[in-house]
């Protein structure tokens, strides 16, 4: 069992991903925006962070840069989770410091595949 944080402004996407993770026996915390998320990550001891790219306060790439620049969170495992799914967009996200990339809509199969890559 692992503990995950989901940062996504879409209530439907947060609910879907949280339900899938909980169905696999994991615990989940959620944030609608990146506001306050860095502090939550420092305190939360998360196995991984699911990070949307298109967010209202700052995009996921900017947040990822801040996360990697912070000594306390630089090693956090980050899975970008987005509707952006071309090879160019996926490669861009991985080059920006993400550990993995999960395209939406998320399915149990694609989620399980991503989680297995963490081991």
TrEMBL record:
The modification 4-aspartylphosphate is found at residue 52. One of its GO terms (biological process) is phosphorelay signal transduction system. The keyword Calcium does not apply. Keywords: Phosphoprotein, Two-component regulatory system. Gene3D superfamilies: 3.40.50.2300. Residues 3-119 form the Response regulatory domain. Pfam families: Response_reg. CDD domains: REC. PANTHER family: PROTEIN PILG, STRESS RESPONSE REGULATOR PROTEIN 1. This is Response regulator. It comes from Tumidithrix elongata BACA0141.
């Amino acid at each position: 069992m692992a503990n995950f944080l989901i940062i996504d402004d879409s209530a439907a996407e947060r609910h879907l991903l949280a339900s899938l993770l909980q169905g696999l026996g994991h615990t989940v915390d959620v944030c609608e925006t990146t506001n306050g998320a860095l502090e939550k990550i420092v305190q939360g001891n998360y196995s991984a962070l699911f990070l949307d790219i298109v967010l209202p306060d700052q995009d996921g790439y900017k947040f990822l840069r801040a996360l990697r620049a912070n000594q306390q969170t630089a090693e956090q495992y980050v899975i970008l989770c987005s509707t952006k799914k071309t090879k160019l967009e996926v490669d861009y996200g991985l080059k920006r410091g993400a550990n993995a990339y999960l395209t939406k809509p998320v399915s149990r199969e694609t989620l399980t595949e991503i989680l297995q890559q963490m081991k």
